[in-house]
Amino acid sequence: MKIYTRRGDEGKTDLRGGDRVSKTSPRVEAYGTVDEVNAVVGLAYPTGYDDVDEWLGEVQNHLHIVQAEFATPDDDTDTPTIRDEHVEALEAWIDEADEELEPLQSFIFPGGAEPGSRLHHARSVCRRAERRAVALANDEEIDETAVAYLNRLSDALFAFARLVNQREGVEERSPTY
């Protein structure tokens, strides 16, 4: 398979199924930003903590599924889909992380140890992906579970960042007003 095709030189790309659309379409923006989240999660992996790394490995697979969903405008029985169980897995991981964490008392700055900072970065990119998915949902029908997944994932990445930073002995910093 060739890496370059020259088919995108005029600002269009192929969706799954063969339709050609502008690279600035809300659908391409949505799955492109999910791809960016996946790349930033890849920067955070490995964190050095087996449980978090296992979660992030699952997350990367889930994000690939979201991308496939967003790249497929028509219902296609072959398209993998994000299901409620994927969202529930994120919730279980958040709960597991929260059991170890000190309760959050105020807003905190993103940052900390390198893996924690990278997870905070992934969280902020995930929020953008969620906004792009909501914009797409305003124009076209998409699976609501994928939007819920992105919403919950940003929460999970926040919890993972806090957990890694705590394990690294990095104190959270809060803004002063």
Give your account of this protein's structure.
There is one protein chain. The chain is mostly helical and 177 residues long. The protein has a single domain, classed as Hypothetical Protein Ta1238, Chain: A. 60% of the residues lie in helices and 3% in strands. It has 5 helices and 2 strands, in the order ββααααα. The chain has a two-stranded antiparallel ribbon. Strand 1 and strand 2 form a beta hairpin. The longest helix has 26 residues. The radius of gyration is 18 Å and the shape is elongated. The model has no long low-confidence stretch (mean pLDDT 95).
Uncertain parts: none
- C-alpha Rg, in Å? 18 Å
Estimated helix fraction: 55-70%
Mean pLDDT: 95
Largest sheet report: 2 strands, antiparallel
Number of domains: 1
Q: Provide the CATH topology.
A: Hypothetical Protein Ta1238, Chain: A
Percent of sequence in beta strands: under 5%
Gist?
The protein has helices spanning 26-44, 50-70, 84-100, 114-139, 144-167, and strands at 12-14, 20-22.
Jot down its keywords:
177 residues, mainly alpha, Hypothetical Protein Ta1238, Chain: A, two-stranded antiparallel sheet, 5 helices
Layout of strands and helices, then pairs:
Layout: E1 12-14, E2 20-22, H1 26-44, H2 50-70, H3 84-100, H4 114-139, H5 144-167
Antiparallel strand pairs: 1-2
Helix pairs in contact: 1-2, 1-4, 2-5, 3-5, 4-5
